[in-house]
Specification:
The chain is built from 4 helices and 11 strands; from the N terminus they run αβαβββββααβββββ. By secondary structure, it is an alpha+beta fold.
C-alpha cells in the first residue's frame, strides 16, 4: 500500500462513519502588506481563536453546527435532521429551510475558495483522490493548490493559494489544517475529527419556537 492509498483509505473510512467536528479559526497579518487601522484591528481581533462545534452522520443526513459569536458574522446554529435543515440563533427559535439537504451551512466558516475544504463531505471526497498529496511524515500529508472562488457578483477573489495538511491516526482522518491568504491577511483553519462511530442525536426543533 502506497502512502497516498493509506490517506485515501482513511478518508473513505472517515466519510463512511459518524464523527464530531471542532473548527478553530485564526487570522494573522501578512508580512510586508500595508494595513489600515481598521484592517489592523480586524486582524488583531481575529488572532483570537474562534471555535465551532459540530457532528455529522451522512448515512442519516443528520448533524449540527454551532459557530462562534463574531462581529458582523453569521452566528446561527444549523441542525440537519434526516435531510431537513433548521437554522436559527443558538438554542432557537429555528426556521425550517425548504428542500432536502445533504450538508450543513459550512459557509459560515469559510468563503470563496476555502468553502469546498471546510465542508467535511466535500473535503473527504477530495482527499480520497490524493495523488497530488505529498507525504511529509509517517501519517501526515500536504497539498498546495490554486483554487478559484465561486462566482460572486460583489467581489472577484480570483485564484488563491491554499495549503492543506492532513493527519491520519488509527485509520481515520484526525486533523486537517488549511492556510490561505486574501488581500490583507492569512486565514488559518484547523478541523479536528473525533468520536468516530458515536451516535449523532439531533433534537428536532419546532420551527418558530425554542425547543
Amino acid at each position: 500500500m502506497t502512502p497516498s492509498s493509506g490517506l485515501a483509505a482513511a478518508a473513505s473510512a472517515t466519510a463512511n462513519t459518524t464523527y464530531r467536528l471542532r473548527y478553530t479559526e485564526t487570522l494573522s497579518a501578512i508580512p510586508g502588506v500595508a494595513l489600515t487601522d481598521s484592517d489592523r484591528r480586524f486582524i488583531e481581533q481575529g488572532g483570537k481563536p474562534l471555535v465551532s462545534e459540530g457532528a455529522y452522520d451522512h448515512s442519516s443526513l443528520s448533524g449540527y453546527l454551532i459557530p462562534p459569536k463574531r462581529a458582523g458574522g453569521d452566528t446561527r446554529e444549523h441542525r440537519l435532521v434526516q435531510g431537513e435543515l433548521f437554522v436559527g440563533p443558538v438554542g432557537g427559535p429555528f426556521t425550517k429551510n425548504q428542500g432536502r439537504f445533504e450538508t450543513l451551512g459550512y459557509a459560515v466558516l469559510g468563503t470563496g475558495a476555502l468553502l469546498s475544504w471546510v465542508e467535511p463531505w466535500q473535503m473527504l471526497t477530495r482527499v480520497q483522490q490524493p495523488e497530488t498529496f505529498v507525504p511529509t511524515g509517517p501519517d501526515t500529508y500536504r497539498l498546495s493548490v490554486q483554487e478559484n472562488a465561486p462566482p460572486n457578483p460583489k467581489v472577484s477573489f480570483g485564484s488563491v493559494p491554499i495549503t492543506i495538511e492532513v493527519t491520519v491516526s488509527g485509520g481515520y482522518i484526525r486533523r486537517v489544517t488549511l492556510e490561505s491568504p486574501n488581500e490583507i491577511m492569512m486565514i488559518h483553519i484547523t478541523i479536528d475529527f473525533s468520536d468516530f462511530g458515536a451516535p449523532v442525536v439531533v433534537p428536532v426543533p419546532t420551527p418558530g419556537a425554542t425547543p
